[in-house]
Amino acid sequence: MRSHNTSVTDIEIIEDFSSTARCDEGFLRVRRLRCQNRRADGTASKVYRVDVVDRPRLDAVAVLLYRRGEGGLEVLTRMNLRPAAFFRKGKDMAVPDGRSYLRVEEIVAGLLELEDKGEEGLRHRAAEEVREEAGYVVRPEEIRLLGAGFFVAPGILSEKVFPAAVDVTGKQPQPPEGDGTPLEEGTELRWHPIEALLDACRRGEVPDAKTEIAITRLLAGQP
């Protein structure tokens, strides 16, 4: 992962080209649809509008790295730049808070590629993301799947996230490769006691759903 001498303190919008951009280009694709419900008795609802957000790759895998220490389980997070969360600032919030979400703490995650099929594909992609984002080399067979995938925002987002975990106790990491994009500037890896991190999720200090879900599922099936 590329390092920089100074940390990121702000994200400046150079141009907002929303009004001229097509819905079917860019990292997220927005489909604007007119739909109609079909009922069992042959009737139909009135026509209504639906917006659906797709990624170029439909689904993702999220990986909870953990290690066993004298104090119990510890889990790894990454502090990542998250512009969408950051740009909440200045907007009318139902529950106002004074926090800046320039960075959001979360577990390792990445999009599934076209060749990633079935459970074997999930394990392969999880191992690749662990190496790229955290610097640990693990084998796909070491990856533990934590149940079925889940939707984050099924009203608008088609993506499912598949949670997984891997034990890296005793493994020595290398510097993470990262992907070289500006969004990875200043990324920081942190270890936390697992119960403390779960509490931080529930207090909103770590406001990332996949992190809380993965921890909860790991603890529920802990060997």
UniProtKB/TrEMBL annotation:
Alphabetically sorted, this entry's keywords are:
Hydrolase
Q: Kindly list the residue ranges recorded as spanning the membrane.
A: none
Q: Name one GO molecular function term.
A: hydrolase activity
Q: Which residues form the Nudix hydrolase domain?
A: 56-214
Any idea what this protein is called?
Hydrolase, nudix family
Organism of this sequence: Stigmatella aurantiaca (strain DW4/3-1)
